[in-house]
Amino acid sequence: MKTIEKQGKTVEEAIQLALEELKVKREEVDVEVLEEGNRGILGFLSKMAKVRVTVKPKPDEVAAKFLEGLLKHFGISCKIECELEENVLNIVISGDNAGILIGKHGNTLDAIQYLTSLVVNRTSNEFIRVLLDAENYREKREKALQRLAIKLANKVKESKRSITLEPMYPNERRIIHTALQKDPKVTTKSIGKEPNRRVVISLK
User: Fold this and answer.
1) Smaller CB count within 10 Å for the chain: N or C?
2) Is the pLDDT of residue 169 over 90?
3) Which residues, listed in sequence order, are joined to residue 201 by a DSSP beta bridge?
4) What pLDDT score does 61 carry?
């Protein structure tokens, strides 16, 4: 993190001078006021205001540093790519050992994504949505769930009996609902409480 100290007739003037030198916006820095500054007798300036301005790390930099440390701790060597666009941080982890990070039904990947989100948003003024993927797992899982939804919907139509799926994360339940929302013969709903909330597929 880059830090500089600046003086000015007022605190705001000192901050502005620092921003100009750092070439950043006000929301991109943390400011510590070291001296308020004051005027002496007859209004003459007797003490300059002084501030310490530190550039905040960018969300993608925070995420990359956290993940690099995490992977190093577990002895995993992978490539980390981060792209921030409109408050959405897309992170892709690739490499020979990237598959280890997925876990059963993506449980490990979801846990790492959650931790990364906590770390990133701890230093950000705006909420940053973190989306983490490894070995293109998210897309593969989505397609598998879509196929499963259609297969089970056909079973419901044939047997005329409802089917209750295994517990799923909210994003996976959403994939099931979306896959079947245009089917004229079946309907879906979620039942139960987290983390055991499930999707039920029934005839309309």
Assistant:
1) C
2) no
3) 163, 188
4) 92
